[in-house]
Amino acid sequence: MSADVFNDAERIIAEQLEQAHAFYGEDAKGAAPLLPILHALQHAFGYVPPQAQPLIAHALNISQAEVRGVVTFYHDFKTEPAARAVIKLCRAEACQARGCERIASHLESAHGLVAGARSHDGRIALESVYCLGNCALGPAALVGDELIGMIDEVRADALVAEARR
Ligand code: FES
């Protein structure tokens, strides 16, 4: 965590704690202000920096395990910045019949993209999805709002190149 992020996280935690004390008074102890703090951090950074968790634990006088437990319980909390681009590749039956596994293999061998993970530079995430409603034009993929049909290796390479720009 850079010094800027560290300072911003510390400031956000202090602000949220102050608001919780103003609102709840003496009841704002322990984990009570935890969710507002996590929401504020995610709003500020787009995710809850893992390095902020010890700061939160210290500020609330709770364990880091408690903080981590809440962060991981709620799927809406992210612990790393969002990828710049998410390639959703359909792996359902119709797209399997039309070669989506070949595209998935190509994305892995040519670009190191593995479903459920990010590229090494963190910019691209590959996700497997199961039917995009574009079965007749499979293999299908979705990037942002763009539905792509009949994706082949050339188109897959272009998507990756666009995402890296
Ligand atoms: S099975 Fe792939 S879009 Fe429907």
Which structural class matches the secondary elements?
alpha+beta
CATH superfamily of the largest domain: Glutaredoxin
Report on the biggest sheet: 5 strands, mixed
DSSP summary: helix tally: 7
Shape: elongated
Describe it for me?
The protein folds into 2 domains: 71 residues, no CATH class; 80 residues, Glutaredoxin (3-Layer(aba) Sandwich), CATH 3.40.30.10. The protein has 7 helices and 5 strands. It has a 5-stranded mixed beta sheet with strand order 2-3-1-4-5. A hairpin with a 5-residue loop joins strand 2 and strand 3. The model has no long low-confidence stretch (mean pLDDT 91). It binds FE2/S2 (inorganic) cluster. FE2/S2 (inorganic) cluster (FES) binds next to helix 5.
